[in-house]
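User
New here, explain this?
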Amino acid sequence: MSKTLLQQVEELFEQQLATWPMAADNFRALQGVEVKSLQVDGLPIKVQFNPARAVSSSAKIDPKSLKERKCFLCEQNRPDVQRGIEWGRYVVLINPFPIFPRHLTIPDRSHTDQLITGRIADMMRLAKELPGYTVFYNGPKCGASAPDHMHFQAGNSDFLTVIDASETAQIIIDDERGRILLEDEMPMPVFTISTSDPEKGQELFDLLYRALPLEHDQSEPMLNMLCTAHHGRIDLQVFPRKKHRPSFYGTEGDDTMLLSPASVDMGGAFITPRENDFKRLDEKIIRQIYHELCLSPEEVKVVVQRLKDE
């Protein structure tokens, strides 16, 4: 009998951590990272001090910088020691700069832009084949350090703290095959697409996608997404955004912080590569981050009305 994707992933971790010293060291270092817990408007928040993530948090993603660097997700530029599992048009890799105890990067096998159009069914099928993992997507201006190469990531579901919005949210669209719900009682608004059918999930997401705000210079609406499968149901949480980084983002100056929030941060786990930022980050700053980056209640009402008008 052929092995499941989950079984293949466990074997990949075992093989890579035995043969790739840098990755093994970084995963081992996770066991000693400092973590603190906060509460922001009822949402539990974890803050992790993880120096290895400085590369991602400070990534330059302007067109000139992307053109000048080799794409680290393309096969020809990956380390010789790195191995992967082919899954359809994607390849499953371990992430050598982990946040999670089990952290995967899942790029398209071709070099194509980070755009989610037409890929929600893929994302949902990945979540179904990786029980215990949450698959996530960062938009090209929402935390992705490789906006020039389409990729998902995945990590342990129990690492994230965002509540199960589908249990408490208001229903926006409902039919026998799936729902779109809205949770607006958290520090940030969250739309949830809940279904057991990846194709229906794609259909419902397309409705939401068309309803989200899109600026003239953007390739897609700004968003982060988390996707988890459990008990036959797939929940896709969509965090619509309006800004890439908070106003105090920076690498120099006492009033700056090296924070480039992505899906993991939206999911309730903030990653700080600098110790001073780790110590400073508190409930007030996190609330400000969500306020600056996420849609306002008025903007959410516009999205909901567009959905109902479809």
